[in-house]
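Training component of the fellowship. As part of building independent skills, the fellow (R.M.) carried out the full modelling exercise for a liganded target. The chosen ligand was S-adenosylmethionine. The inputs are recorded below so that the supervisory panel can assess the work.
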Amino acid sequence: MAQRRQITFRHRFWRRCGLIGRKHRSGGRENQQPKRLTSREVALNTLIKVAEAGAYSNLQLNRALQDAELSRQDAGLATELVYGTIQFQRTLDDTLRKLITKGFDKISPWVLSLLRLSAYQMLYLDRIPPHAAVNEAVQIAKRRGHSGISGMVNGVLRNMERQLADLKRPNDDQDPITRIGLTHSYPNWLVKRWIKVYGEEKAEAICAAGNNPPHASLRVNLLRISREKALELLAGAGYEAMPSPLTPYGIIVSGGGNLAAADGYGKGLWSLQDESSMLVAEVCAPAPGMRVLDCCAAPGGKTSHLAELMNNEGAVIANDVHPHKRNLVEEQAQRLGLTIVEAVTGDALELALRFNADSFDLVLLDAPCSGFGVIRRKPEIKWTKKVEDVSAIADLQSRLIKEAAKLVKPGGTLVYSTCTIERQENEDQIESFLREHHSFELDTDWPGNVLEPLRLAGVIGDSFDGSVQLLPQHFGSDGFFIARLKRKQ
Ligand SMILES: C[S@@+](CC[C@H](N)C(=O)[O-])C[C@H]1O[C@@H](n2cnc3c(N)ncnc32)[C@H](O)[C@@H]1O
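Fellow's submitted model of the complex:
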């Protein structure tokens, strides 16, 4: 169970993406001597909000870090504690249940979060001495609760400290679902589904990869700068930057500061985007002058990439159901100097009422999905999503793809993508759509620079059918499904 985890690694990723930053306050505040929270208290407050209010961990942590004004090192620890505790929640609870034989389910939420947070440090973070984790937890319990609670926290964690070697032994459950679920901390229903589709070995690799911190990547705006020049600029600004092996537009970045605050971002030289996500617009391969519809566009990552690939010539209608997200798309387009993007608001289920049938050369449906391809970024979805959510979202996707198809010209292209690895939302959607829509067929005519790295990595083989399922372990990028369909003439 024990793994050496780099405390500052995750923090660097989120800071680079601009999701974590220090708040700059106006003067005078230092005289008021506000009570400063420790990194563990910041982490605990965040975990409590995520558990009780269903807040997104990344947004909640960002807010908490801005308010707390921790040192870079402490912010790194708080980040590690939040992500690690959420990721390994199942395994931590399983361990705690061995020590708390009665009343585990009645423990109040904040005490449970504190126990999990402390257990995570003791079981997974070799750089933190167990006694330090216990002492900190007891101090927090004293400050927040009464002596009974701090006594209980002390008793459970000291007991854990004594049995640590035994508790860290690898899980050898005979049942592969339970073994994988407990080792990598995933719910059994999810592991069971993935074993059924991918087999035991691949399913385990998916689960392991979902616990790895994501790397930061950016997409170069080739209308403004070449990738080589962008690499030079980044190196000059203190980043370690290297070309993505997956896409000619991508750069993988480590070291340095907040990428979203960096000069090149403001000047529209690049956008922050995962490499798998970049492949979607590349598979669309839009030509300059085309009329393109992005059905579910916000915040505009793929919309802006499409417009860049079109050399800012033609039209990209970027639709999203949420009115407040329209600004996000418009801001992206403006920052990148893309004038052909028109952001609109509406339900994609009604797009055929607003636009003429058969009127777009290319329609992209980057559908809302369960998001299991981005568990590294949002670990709480392991615990919040249920099996019935997958069926409900699959039902919406199948209605969306039928509506999107109505708008594609004869001879035009429909691209369907999701950031999930669920067959029901991916391959099954395409199969059932094609069964009912004989005027469409899967299109294997993908750009060579997209196919080559996928072939080299063995992600696609001779039986490539015009769709791909990227798994998080393939390139260390998000799990994504992409299918390209052609409407027959
Ligand atoms: C996967 S995200 C899209 C990400 C976007 N394509 C990008 O690359 O930045 C899915 C989007 O679908 C939108 N959405 C959900 N249901 C929708 C509907 N019925 N009609 C239109 N948009 C919808 C959500 O608001 C969300 O922004």
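The panel noted the following from the submitted structure. The radius of gyration is 24 Å. Residues 387-406 form the longest helix (20 residues).
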